[in-house]
Amino acid sequence: MKAQVLPGTRQSGSGPTIGVLALQGGVAEHAQMLSDLGATVRLVRKEADLESHLDGIVLPGGESSTIDRLLKIFNMKQLLADLLADGLPCLATCAGMILVSRKVLDAAPGQTSLGVLDTTVSRNVYGSQTASAEVTLDTTLGPVRGAFIRAPKIVRVGEDVQVLARRMPEQGGLEEDGDIVAVRGNNIVALSFHPELTGDATFHTDLLNRLA
Ligand SMILES: NC(=O)CC[C@H](N)C(=O)O
């Protein structure tokens, strides 16, 4: 694994400030990738980290029910939902995608989502950790290599949500015409998979290109 990016190692003011929600999950790889692309990375661990200006935010993978619980414990959930509803550019991967979705079919007891993206997701549809797979997907941004790890699938998209990629049956997809695994609704791009674990910077570059 690459060296973890720590606050002191970043050149502040050198690029847009991108938050990476850092309560649980795969934070370091996103932070490294954004930093390599010239962004100033802020690890978001408390409400104050959301209160000062961010140009964009990454919601990483991990365990969505745990991240949800920590957002509630640290009193960050409403502010994060408001920022996203107000248009903060966002890249959400895996558990992050579950977090932004309007509806989670198989939520853990007490688990709620931010409900800011008009999608319905189903968790863990591809099996356990041992069923993890790396796949090169044909996306609207070109080929993207992603890792599926206890990944969710999008089972419904709203009218204003654009499909960016499908996982086809020969890639481990479950539906005949492919499973929806990448979407965009306004300011939010959500992926079922992890591009940061394969070193594919396509969607991180896209995030930086989407900043106001
Ligand atoms: N790699 C991941 O982020 C897995 C997500 C996990 N299955 C969840 O429900 O949160």
TrEMBL record:
Q: Does the keyword Hydrolase apply?
A: yes
What terms describe the molecular function in GO for this protein?
Answer: glutaminase activity; lyase activity
Q: Which domain of life is it from?
A: Bacteria
One Pfam family named in its UniProt record: SNO
Provide a GO CC annotation, any one. Answer: cytosol
Kindly state which keywords UniProt assigns to this record, in alphabetical order.
Glutamine amidotransferase, Hydrolase, Lyase, Pyridoxal phosphate
User: Can you cite a GO biological process for this protein?
Assistant: pyridoxine metabolic process
Sequence positions that bind L-glutamine: 62-64, 123, 149-150
Q: Which residues form the active site?
A: 94 (nucleophile), 194 (charge relay system), 196 (charge relay system)
Q: Which InterPro entries match?
A: Class_I_gatase-like, PdxT/SNO, PdxT/SNO_CS
EC number in record: 3.5.1.2
Q: Which reaction does it catalyse?
A: L-glutamine + H2O = L-glutamate + NH4(+)
**Does Lyase show up as a keyword for this record?**
yes
Q: Which NCBIfam families match?
A: PLP_synth_Pdx2
Query: What family does this belong to?
Result: Belongs to the glutaminase PdxT/SNO family.
What's the protein called, per UniProt? glutaminase
| Organism annotation | Winkia neuii BV029A5
The upper taxonomy is: Bacteria, Bacillati, Actinomycetota, Actinomycetes, Actinomycetales
